[in-house]
Amino acid sequence: MNPLATQAEVEAVTALIAASRLTSHVSRGAERTIVGVIGVSDDKETLAGQFAELAGVDSVVPISKSYKLVSREGRDEPTVVRLRNGVTFGGETLAVAAGPCSVESREQLFTTAESVSRAGANLLRGGAFKPRTSPYAFQGMGLEGLVIMREAADAYGLAVVTEVLDVRDVETVAEYADVLQIGARNMQNFGLLREAGASRKPVLLKRGIAATIEEWLMAAEYVYVAGSHDIVLCERGIRSYDPMTRNLLDITAVPLLHSLTHLPVIVDPSHGTGVRGLVGPMSLAAVAAGADGLIVEVHPTPATAKSDGPQSLTLPLFAELMGRLEPVARAVGRSLPAKAVTV
Ligand code: PEP
Ligand code: MN
User: Fold this and answer.
1) From the CA of 181, which ligand is nearest?
2) How many helices (H) and strands (E) does the chain have?
3) What pLDDT does 342 receive?
4) Residue identifier of the C-alpha nearest atom 9 of ligand 1
5) Helices 315-331 and 276-288, interaxial angle, to 10°?
């Protein structure tokens, strides 16, 4: 719409969309309103002509991409995902999630939450439901793990991001978490995407282990259409032929996604490399490339971790990384979250 378009003019557009048996999606930005037209039409050209005639319409842009609502054309300003406690993904301040791969005990979570909040993290990560390569490996503490996560995060002013593995658990995980994580193995689990989207909770959508950027954006579109518009994309590495690292961390995806979608993008250097010593350098690279945040595995005693010990930072290593990250963030016009002051 024209920046000066009135509400009545927007409504005339949505009325024509409804009369054409199509669905409208209205996105109100600071500058202008964009009305998305969703559906299948036999005669796009005639319809586009009709819209162009309406008062207040600035231009009619056909979006050829199969992901429309999450595309840059669907919204001309970046989405900032805001959580209840003031954490933002896509704002000037970066989102930094830190915590263990798996929730193992109350003590482990409280020790980690205290330390990472003092180092400047603003979200606590940790899996209560774990997808594992082997069905015989530790699968997580389940509901008990969720309760511990919530309590530890609340004690130190952190938000909670945790994975939901199964459609049957969406409601329960949504009760305890601020952000629902959809793991790499479930990126194209469309039933789960629909259910997570319908919860209207913020969703962290990790890249599938062999997913193209387009497939990933199509998955995000699924969540968006289902109802949650607060979607954060997370690059976590893709399968490569080289066993030296666990995955090949695709930092190129960060600026590429920023050119294709209005959604925020964060990076997981832990699963992205699988190697503790590579987590720091790749965190710096991710922020330098414009990532809106990081999700990092941190464990008080990685040697005894039930999962992903070799890629987990110790508590002091995480604090040291946050120190090194600060000037890099500043250089690209971003800042790190404020450090929690302990009393
Ligand atoms: C995780 O973050 O704990 C995890 C299992 O990650 P991914 O889905 O990227 O493998
Ligand atoms: Mn892990």
Assistant:
1) 1
2) 11, 12
3) 61
4) 184
5) 20
DSSP 77: S
In degrees, to the nearest 5, what angle opens at C-alpha 170 toward C-alphas 194 and 151? 145
What is the pLDDT at residue 84? Answer: 83
For residue 252, the one-letter residue type is: T
Q: How remote is the CA of residue 272 from the centroid of ligand 2, in Å?
A: 10
Cα(93)–Cα(216) distance, integer angstroms: 25
Pairwise CA distance, residues 194 & 105, whole Å: 31
Interatomic CA distance for residues 149 and 109, integer angstroms: 7
Which alpha helices (DSSP H) does 227-304 contain, by range? 253-260, 269-273, 276-288
Listed as ranges, residues in the chain with pLDDT below 50 are none
Q: According to the model, what pLDDT value does residue 38 have?
A: 86
- pLDDT at residue 341 in the model: 77
178-118-237 Cα angle (round to 5): 55
Q: Name which residue sits closest to atom 8 of ligand 1, judged by CA.
A: 183
- For the whole model, what pTM was predicted? 0.92
d(C-alpha 268, C-alpha 279), whole Å: 9
What does pLDDT average to over the chain? 95
Total residue count of the chain as it appears in this document: 343
